[in-house]
Structure formats: C-alpha cells, structure tokens
Amino acid sequence: SLPPDKAPEDPPATLAPPQKVPPPGAAPRAAESLTPPATQEEPAQLETREDLKDSPKELPSRREPQTDETTEESSGLTAPTPAPKIHRLEPMVVRRGSSTALRITGEGFGPKTKAVIRRGGRPIHALRILGRKIDSPTALHFTLLVDRQLPLGTYAVTVVDGAGRESNSLTLEVGL
Q1: Bridge partners of 171?
Q2: How many angstroms separate the CA atoms of 157 and 123, rounded?
Q3: Sign for the pseudo-dihedral over CA of 132, 135, 138, 143
Q4: What is the pLDDT of residues 42-60, one digit of tens each?
Q5: d(Cα 64, Cα 129) in Å, to the nearest integer?
Q6: CA distances (Å), 167 to each of 12, 20, 140, 156, in order?
C-alpha cells in the first residue's frame, strides 16, 4: 500500500514520433506531401496547336465581318476597310422648299456610298437625295430636294458605305 500523499504511477505513455508542421500558408515540401506518391495522378495534358495539326478535330472558325471593300497589307492578308468619315458638309444650311446642290467631303467613300439624313434617329423622307455622284474616295455630290412642309431645325447627315458601315454625322440646318 502506498502512503496517501503518493498516487499510483501510471505506466509511461508512448508518443508518436514528432511530425514537422509547415508554417501557415506554406506549401508542404515533396517529402512532407499529404498524398502518398503512389496515389498521385499526372495532371491532364492540354492539347496544343501542334497536337491539333495531326488531330482530325477542327478548331471552330471565327466569322469575319463581310465587306465589299478591303485593303491589302504587306503580309498579304486583307483587313476590313474602316467606316467612312465626314469632314465637311457644304452648304450647312438649306432653305425649306428648295433644291440645293450639296457636297460632302471626307474619306473612305466607295462606289456604293450613299448619304442619309435623319432627325431623331429616323430617316427623313421629306428630304430627297437625287443625282448622287462620287468624285473620289473623298468627295460625294448630290442634289437635295427640301419639301415645303419640312419642319425647320437641324438634321443629322451621315454616309453609309456598301458594307453598311456608317460615318460620323454632321449637322444640316433647314431654315426659311
């Protein structure tokens, strides 16, 4: 029997060998990997363009905008022609009930380029364009018939090329 101030001794505990724990945020080293090497799988291999050359698979084609005019670069590839631009409208004021010769100068005018006149985003049919003539890629002439009942005010003039690309707009004023 043991004296009351002494408790029976427990057998000594056996501890597992100490394990190294990486500091927070650090990736485990290969030797300390949590997954045994025998169970690790190789990552999936991505197909490269070289792999696809020999493969029957086809890459999806990218649709290019269709245009009626293109420019050739030194590489032999064609690039879309930019939208036309208007630099000047002469005259900038027309009289209601008149017939006036207008000239639009700018860049990128082709054989199918036409003038469009709008107000509030809508084409105005009381302004009729007749006798369209393209002198060069920078000049367009036509006769504008202005109806007598056309409201006074400002209208947006643009040009649209044969591919449907629209230019910037300039203001045409209809006065008395």
Answers
A1: 156
A2: 10
A3: negative
A4: 444 444 444 444 444 443 4
A5: 33
A6: 92, 70, 13, 11
